[in-house]
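**User:** Everyone, produce a chain:

**Assistant:**
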Amino acid sequence: MNGIVAYCRPGFESDCAAELQDKTAALGIYGYCQTKAQQGYVVYRCQNEEAEHLAKKLVLKELIFTRQFFAVLAHVTDLPQTDRVSAVQVALLDETVQEAFTGIKPCGDLRVETPDTNDGKELSKFCRKFTVPLRQGLRQIDWLTTKESDRRPTLHAFFLSNQEVMIGFSYSFNQSPWLMGIPRLRSPSEAPSRSTLKLDEAFQVFVPEHEREARISSGMNAVDLGAAPGGWTYQLVRRGMMVQAVDNGPMAESLMETGQVKHIREDGFKYRPKKKNVTWLVCDMVEKPARVGELMTSWLVEGDCQEAIFNLKLPMKRRYAAVSEYLEHIKQDLVENGRGRFELQAKQLYHDREEITVHIRWL
């Protein structure tokens, strides 16, 4: 099987596929997608040399509905229960694979993964046990370096069952740092709501680790629009920020007791800070996405914040087309009315549901 495999949230395969078709066509590659509802991944079929090109040029950071993707090396559908390692070795030692992907081996790391589905979760125990013998077997045939290396491509073993696996690779400069593209976060027991994990994940996805100390630090001023009961405010407080929590609803007492939160009982669409000293604006209001996008853009254009993270709720149908329209409108407003260069990122995060999370900052 030639092409790439993209991991996505189950139920969003068609949106992931539509985006892949759009982005690959922009790169001059015209393959086709194979999808199945609720399977948690999309297969994009193209030639080997095109798949390798996409592994470099299809920028994961710019994909909204794809968590991780890899270029396919081999697809094994009849793994024997007694010696699966040898079957994988045979597939990777095939001459056509060796010739098509010269320069890929040896890879610097191995990730044994599954789709993010109930069936995939049942496979996770098997994958954990199988990782060590598979790693050893791949080193025997020189498909893995003796020691892990982030300068070499990463090898992916994507198990669909304990008898079927797709083997592929991603480049270290164009991949998610997390297994299956999912950061493993624990919900803090003291947080007022589970929505707190969305902002925690957004900070990790959108702000590179080496920049977090400078861009997300104690003493900064932040505004949380539609804050109650305080799930997102909690993440700002735990990072040492002073927060203006804007909502007519009640805030969690535990947050108010920190002394870092000022509760402003006002409509989030009408409020503006008196001083232009706000670094972070965050917003998780359940409102029409176009209206939220306009509000966030106006804060940035008028200099009321430096960076913004917010959610856009998705329609039931043609979600990728709708998202593209929302984001294009935001970009146009920033270009026409803004203060210079900006960075805009959007992702359907693991902790999102029928929504995407957007990050914008001035450069």
